[in-house]
Design brief:
The complex is a heterodimer of chains A (412) and B (121). Chain A is mostly helical. Helices cover 73% and strands 0% of the residues of chain A. Chain B has a 4-stranded antiparallel beta sheet with strand order 2-5-1-6. A two-stranded antiparallel sheet of chain B has the order 3-4. The chains are: A mainly alpha (412), B alpha+beta (121).
């Protein structure tokens, strides 16, 4: 037992870091309200700061905090009802909180929280904001900064989302078995959105916002612990395998370095191993989907010791499977790029122009950049220049702009 | 808790459906206690629009909004929470060709607003 106040403060920091999210998830279930639960969480930690330096850190800090939070909340509800003349609702609320059993797997409460924050009746923006706030514990200002949105706007988004959960009575529960696949899809979409926002910032000066990618991976890990479904494993694998290349993706002056030019010595081998193992587990299950297939593609890249050694045939085959699972022009575009690597730029160009002719992706910068690249490789510089310029006109990301400008300069 | 399920759809597609499916769903939903009230509506063109402005009643030809999907009917249901309401709504036959809007009922009798206050955001 620590009696040193300094030690206790450090312990409390550690407990906050590791347990506060789980405690919050349970308090939300017990109190039936997000805001009440957050207040209760603060009160619980305040009590811990008072008592633990004196009495030592409890054997089960999480249970202690849940109890303390709940007690303070009941107390608060009771005190309110004494001021507001005979408020029957408050009396009922206090009674209900007292009656709700504290038992119940914490893992279940964390899953309840995730599924509630990612409920499809909430807008995607609201799902992302609420998940980052309640599940990941990010501050409103942090989330606003990460998504380049003014803090009051983000704060309003969260307030409205909580209001909707209350007014429409979105229940705090893990979905029924028959609803699980689609509801899980919603959750994975949120995680992937957060990861992508961090990996490939859509505007602004720096290419990656690492904080968001880290949060997404943390979320992914939590989900694999709570719900080890194949696509959950697949998504974590995908994020790890992409993240493994982070150090190699930007050059000395923050320039964009493409996959075939990256220093593979800078790739994070531990993440690659972990990702590859997860892909195997996902694929073995036979119930895998798009995330797992994308992860498998990333794994093939990761396993190639050099760019030249890449097994493009396998990658094209995986893209075929991906296109069947999720027919989309962006995936068709990525497949076209892989085909070009296997069969030459002429084959790639035909496919890309087919996609663009169909009307899809006409405003998608990467489609024009890919087309430009094919034309460059086919030694058709005038057409390549026009295509690079079109791509440039659609790019807001600074690092990408510099890359495209470099390509244009090389053509001259 | 009560929810109103508003059934929207393209009138031609809905008109081609077999009413017996709707009646079967309705009977089952009433038997289970989920459905409190329900009606099919005549087409949007049969509507009259009523407004009162400056004390005068103004009536015009309907519908209220010219949209591709028109309001075709409603089910007032009782459900434990939104997830259950969604499950009930998903079984309404027109859900397969149209759209169901699931709106929670505001408890106006128990908590009437007295006007003037800004809507809480």
């Amino acid at each position: 037992m620590q009696r040193d106040p300094h030690d206790a403060a450090a312990s409390i920091d550690e407990v906050y870091r590791t347990e506060s999210r789980a405690v919050l998830a349970t308090l939300i279930r017990l109190l039936g309200d997000f805001d009440l639960a957050e207040e209760a969480l603060h009160e619980a930690f305040r009590a811990a700061l008072e008592q633990w330096p004196r009495d030592g850190v409890p054997a089960n800090p999480r249970a202690w905090l849940v109890s303390a939070g709940r007690f303070k909340a009941i107390d608060g509800i009771r005190r309110l009802s004494r001021f507001e003349a005979l408020d029957p609702d408050a009396h009922d609320a206090a009674a209900r909180v007292e009656e709700t059993p504290e038992t119940g797997a914490v893992a279940d409460d964390r899953l309840r929280l995730v599924f509630t924050c990612c409920h499809p009746a909430l807008s995607r923006d609201a799902q992302v904001a609420l998940t980052l706030r309640e599940v990941c514990g990010l501050a409103t200002e942090e989330i606003a900064a990460a998504f380049l949105v003014p803090p009051p706007t983000l704060a309003q988004r969260i307030v409205r989302a909580k209001g909707k959960i209350r007014d429409a009575r979105i229940p705090y529960e893990v979905p029924a078995q028959e609803d699980l696949p689609q509801r899980l899809d919603s959750v994975l979409r949120v995680v992937y959105l957060v990861y992508n926002e961090g990996y490939n910032a859509s505007s602004g000066a720096s290419l990656t916002r690492t904080d968001l990618s880290g949060e997404a991976i943390r979320l992914g890990r939590l989900l694999t612990q709570l719900l080890p479904e194949p696509e959950v494993l697949g998504l974590l694998a995908l994020m790890l395998l992409h993240d493994a290349r982070r150090a190699a993706r930007t050059g000395a002056r923050g320039d964009l370095v493409l996959l075939d030019e990256q220093d593979r010595g800078l790739w994070n081998r531990a993440q690659i191993e972990e990702g590859a193992a997860l892909v195997e587990r996902a694929l073995v299950s036979r119930r895998f989907g798009p995330y797992s297939i994308q992860a498998a593609i990333a794994a093939v890249h990761a396993e190639a010791p050099t760019a030249e050694a890449t097994d493009w045939d396998q990658i094209v085959g995986l893209y075929d499977a991906l296109l069947r699972a999720e027919p989309s022009p962006v995936i068709a575009l990525n497949r076209a790029v892989a085909v070009a690597m296997r069969d030459g730029p002429g084959a790639g160009l035909s496919l890309i122009e087919e996609i663009l002719d169909g009307g899809a992706l006409s405003e998608y910068r990467l489609a024009h950049a890919a087309r430009a690249d094919m034309l460059r490789r086919l030694r058709r510089p005038a057409e390549a220049r026009a295509a690079y310029e079109k791509a440039l006109s659609l790019t807001r990301q600074e690092t990408e702009r510099r890359f495209l400008q470099r390509r244009l300069a090389e053509l001259a | 808790m009560k929810y109103l399920c508003l059934v929207y759809g393209e009138e031609e597609r809905l008109a081609a459906m077999d009413d017996r499916d709707c009646l079967a769903f309705d009977a089952a939903a009433r038997a289970s206690g989920h459905c409190l009230a329900s009606e099919a509506l005549q087409p949007a063109a049969t509507a009259a629009i009523v407004r009162v402005r400056q004390g005068r009643v103004a009536v015009s030809d309907g519908p209220f909004a010219e949209t591709k999907e028109a309001l075709a009917g409603f089910y007032l249901i009782e459900a434990r929470d939104l997830n259950e309401a969604i499950q009930v709504a998903s079984r309404i036959p027109p859900a397969e060709v149209g759209t169901i809007e699931v709106r929670p009922i505001r408890p106006i009798r128990e908590q009437p607003r007295t006007g003037g206050a800004k809507r809480e955001t």
